[in-house]
Amino acid sequence: MMEKAHAKYERLIARCKSLPPTPTAVAHPCDEGSLTAAVDAAKAGLIAPILVGPGARIKEVAAKAGLDISGYPLVEAAFSQDSADKAVAEVRAGRAEALMKGSLHTDELMSAVVKRDTGLRTARRISHCFVMDVPGRTDALIITDAAVNIAPTLKDKVHIAQNAIDLAHDLGSPEVRVAILSAMETVNPDVPSTLEAAALCKMADRGQITGGVLDGPLALDNAISPEAAKIKKIESPVAGRANVLLVPDLEAGNMLAKSLTFLAGADAAGIVLGARVPIILTSRADSLIARMASCAVASLVAAARRSSSAKAVG
């Protein structure tokens, strides 16, 4: 039976009802779309926004859009890069537990995040995950990395895989099944992505990647279709049942995610991981439910980190 549209996202949002709103620094919400997204997420109880940007301009946008922002803190910033730097500073000061992109360019926000002395870097490689609500699938499908790492190395892919596995657990997946994608399901020395897939699987066997079951190389069809995996005689706990797809590079991931969005009617919530806090990346083309889902994902990740920190202190 086909599940109703957006049911997977609605479940994610519902899981946040028992959580306090996540204090979130919203960098440069200077157009109607980005400011509305922040206000709507706040009304839904997902985030507690801290608006960072030119105050007069933000208030003008709010007035034109009929948005009441009087209850939200506003940190003055002169221009978009200044907004990014000051939003990151809110996180470093402990006043925000998540970061949200406004109407500035992604590169501007991420340049502030990765600054060595004033940014939010950790030992992990920063990577992006799409949490896809694909019609006809029971669970959300994570695709990584389709937005940050252009041509990731094997070392980068270890971090990309681990970030995605941790995210899947934060979102409530009891079993994380990672398919490392290529154009084929056999190791071919002439196709580097197949060699990296094999190496990643062995690294998981040796405990260098934890918390999930990895298999690869796998082509897309035998990663998500039980029938395709059966025809190819691939016996694996991942083949045909993957809930995380690790792509060879950004181009492949971006095209896969957008194909699902525009050809299969999927929605794509986006989150950046590997920094001190989750980073919400929304696009002007995102639907309202996708924007809400992105905030819900960040809220669940932030809650998991609070719980982990509390256990470490205890």
Written overview of the protein:
It is a single chain. With about 325 residues, the protein is an alpha/beta fold. It folds into two domains: about 20-120 and about 275-314, Rossmann fold, CATH 3.40.50.10950; about 125-270, Isopropylmalate Dehydrogenase, CATH 3.40.718.10. It is built from eleven helices and eleven strands. An eleven-stranded mixed beta sheet has the order 3-2-1-4-11-10-5-6-9-7-8, sandwiched between helices. Helix 7 links the parallel strand 7 (about 175-180) and strand 8 (about 215-220). Helix 1 (about 5-15) runs parallel beside helix 11 and helix 4 runs parallel beside helix 5. It is globular, with a radius of gyration of 20 Å. The termini are far apart.
What order do the SSEs take from the amino end to the carboxyl end, as H and E?
HEHEHEHEHEEHEHEHHEHEEH
**What is the CA-atom radius of gyration, in angstroms?**
20 Å
Biggest sheet character? 11 strands, mixed
* Number of strand segments: 11
The top-level CATH class of the largest domain is: Alpha Beta
Structural class call reads: alpha/beta
Oligomer: single chain
Note the beta-strand portion. Answer: 15-25%
Q: What overall geometry do the principal axes of the alpha carbons give?
A: globular
Estimate the helix proportion, in percent: 40-55%
Number of helices: 11
Name the strands of the widest sheet in spatial order.
3-2-1-4-11-10-5-6-9-7-8
Question: Alpha-carbon distance between the termini?
Answer: 45 Å
Mean pLDDT: 94
Proper CATH architecture of the largest domain: 3-Layer(aba) Sandwich
CATH topology description of the largest domain: Isopropylmalate Dehydrogenase
Unreliable residue runs:
none
Overall structural domain count: 2
